[in-house]
Amino acid sequence: MEEQIQKITHKLKIEYILFWGLPLIVILIGEFYSEWVGLYADDIRTAYLMETTGILLAACCVPLSLKLFSWVLTKKIDLAYFPKALNLYFCWSSVRILLLEVVALTNILIYYLTLSNTGLLCALISLTASLFCIPGEKRLRKELHIDQRND
User: Fold this and answer.
1) CA 29, CA 60: separation in Å to the nearest integer?
2) Mean pLDDT, consecutive 10-residue segments, the chain of 151 residues?
3) How many CB atoms lie within 10 A of CB 126?
4) What is the rounded CA–CA span in Å between residue 151 and residue 146?
5) What is the predicted pLDDT for the residue at 149?
6) Could you list the residue ranges that cross the membrane (predicted)?
7) Alpha-carbon distance 151 to 141, whole Å?
8) Structural domains counted in the chain
9) Is there a contact between 141 and 148 (Cβ–Cβ < 8 Å)?
10) Distance of alpha carbon 126 from alpha carbon 97, whole angstroms
11) Does a structural domain hold residue 149?
12) What is the pTM of this model?
């Protein structure tokens, strides 16, 4: 049991590091390879459509990712037996971080394509929301109601 908990925690930590690494890579590409930066800055209609898409994506996915996980935790994961609960926890934690990743990457791309701060703001909202999803063994044990044994 302890080995499974540590394995899942390790996988979640790797996912979280990748969550922060991918936007950083896109930002570095945007800063150093500027061929595509500002591609739609002059096209007002396209910029408006992209900004609106980014805003709606952030407005839908950020609360959904946080609330959906809470709902699934109480309705599905808490009712399952340990091995299944651990797998469900990993799966839904991954879905939550993936939703936030999609918002962050999409809005960073929108920022570089349109040179509008709206995309950057929505990406920062997503990245800030991820601070509520920091994985750890203590958090996993608390959310799955597993007591720490002092053997």
Assistant:
1) 27
2) 92 97 96 90 96 98 94 89 91 96 98 96 97 94 78 40
3) 26
4) 15
5) 60
6) 16-34, 54-74, 86-112, 118-136
7) 16
8) 1
9) yes
10) 10
11) no
12) 0.91
